[in-house]
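Why do we bother with holo predictions? Because pocket geometry can differ from the apo form. Keep that in mind while you read this record for magnesium ion.
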Amino acid sequence: MRLRVDLLPHGHYPDVVLVIDTLRATTTAVTYLERGADALLLTSTPEVALGLKGEGFLLGGERGGLPIPGFDFGNSPVEAQPQNFTGKTVVMNTTNGTGASHVAAQTGKHVFLAALTNAHAAARRARAQATEEVAIVCAGTDERVGLEDVYTAGVIAEYLLALGEFSIDDGARIALTVRRNSGNPLEALSSSVHGARLSNLGLGEDVRYAAELSTSTVVPTLVQGDDVPEGTLRFIAG
Ligand SMILES: O=C(O)[C@H](CS(=O)(=O)O)OP(=O)(O)O
Ligand SMILES: [Mg+2]
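The structure, written out:
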């Protein structure tokens, strides 16, 4: 079994893919499903999301870290956490995480969303489904590598290595090294460029929330089907 970590999305994934956008899209996605959402629709563009408004969907997303005009929510797990989304589908579009999910879905056989909050459950799910490779794909920020995503990849890589034998690539070695040398999750996320940026925007609570380790067993799982609106990917709780 191979374990591969892409520090940025590359594509050509033959088997299991775990998409990571710790700050904040995949952390928020886990929270929506934990709070009862039936499904998530991750869109290719904000316009696709806005086109679904008024069809009983709630819209969540951001640009520049701030809520998109016309959307119901930003991209904040702390905003999502106290809400009840039972019976709702949340449509998401964000700067990095939703795009990385679309890259993964082009070829991946089994695509899951992972964060620190569901790290252990995501690793177990990946190991259970994989037949040849687990690819951990870091979304990054604006096509640049993000410490928060690489750190999370290292945490999940550690869990995977505890679950079975893997041959690992250089990306996995880098992620494991970052995980072992960047302190605890909150220290790592707080020291990242994006973590500092979110704190400067007054969103430091989201950074603290995203640093909680394995507090959720929800693993957002891509489901393929013809009934999915064009330009969207449907994820349900797995
Ligand atoms: O909302 C976020 O944290 C980021 C937006 S940005 O990098 O601050 O512009 O989006 P994400 O897609 O969750 O990385
Ligand atoms: Mg991000």
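Residues 21, 23-25, 62, 64-65, 75, 94-97, 139, 141, 194, 198 surround L3UKIRZJ (ligand 1) (CB under 6 Å).
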